[in-house]
Each structure stands twice: as structure tokens, then as C-alpha cells.
Amino acid sequence: MNTNLPLDFTVDKEAKKVYIKREFDAELSLVWDAFTKAEILDQWVAPKPFTARTKVMDFKVGGRRFYAMVSPEGHEKWAIQKFTAINPKTHFATYNTFADKDENAEMPGSEWDYKFSGLGERTVVSITIYNESRERMERMVEMGFAEGFKMSIDNLDKVLAGLQQKG
């Protein structure tokens, strides 16, 4: 499995958007599952040394994922993803916000649009993130979002390799 594939990561502060594009050396159905099933998401989405723990996931339009990023010391940072559109194996969209442990959302949030396309035995994932406020986006970037996302993608490559060996 080739894990040394390029990652395009572009921040457009004027448009309040982040564009991410990455090719994965895995078939579309496996990559789709990695982005849409809690038990797989929890294995890769948190940049090390954090872990992810999903409390609720209802993958349907109008459903949500409520999960925490957990530090090695046990500190939790909660987030909500509300699923706003789903077209199986090609596209889904979410509205994301941080939250407290009781699922009270912190505003403003961001809209994430995920597109998947198969390239033979590889899959391309394109993500567009629109932030409701420029301040939120700038804070996200300053907090190391790009570096954290790249670490998550490295985790995903390892999870996909493991899933391919099992499959």
C-alpha cells in the first residue's frame, strides 16, 4: 500500500474556506466506510497522542455524530457533526460545531462537504470546509488544524492498510 501520496491543503481566508484533496491507495467502499462508520473513525480521526471516542453516531440525513477527542491526560474536547446530505459512496456533508459534554453546541460552526471518487483501486477524497466566521477559521488554523489533519491522514493510511489485510 502506497502511503506516500500527495495531500493538497489550501486555506482561502477571504472565502473562509479550506480545501483538502487526498488520494488513498484503497478501494472506494473501504475509504467510504472509514469516513462513515464510528468504529473505524475512532481508530484514525484523532491526531496522536489524542484518541477519538464516539458517543453517538446516526449516519443519516438529520442524524449526528457526537464524539470527543481525548488527550492522554483524559481531557475531552467534544464535537457534533450533523449530517446534512448523503449520497452513498460519492458524497456527504456535515455541519460541525464544538460542544460541551452535554452536547450544547458552541457557535459558530463550519460546513464540511466530502466528495469521493474511485480511480481503479485508489480513491480520491475532496473536502471543502466553509467556516461561518473568518475568526473561527483563523483560530482553527492557528491551533494547528493543518498539522493535526495531516497526522489524522497518516493514521487513516495505517488503518486502511490493516483493513485491507483483514479483507
Automatic annotation (TrEMBL):
Q: Name one Pfam family in it.
A: AHSA1
User: Where is each Activator of Hsp90 ATPase homologue 1/2-like C-terminal domain found?
Assistant: 26-160
- Superkingdom of source: Bacteria
Q: What is this protein called?
A: SRPBCC domain-containing protein
What organism is this sequence from? Imperialibacter roseus
Similarity annotation: Belongs to the AHA1 family.
SUPFAM superfamilies in the record, alphabetically?
Bet v1-like
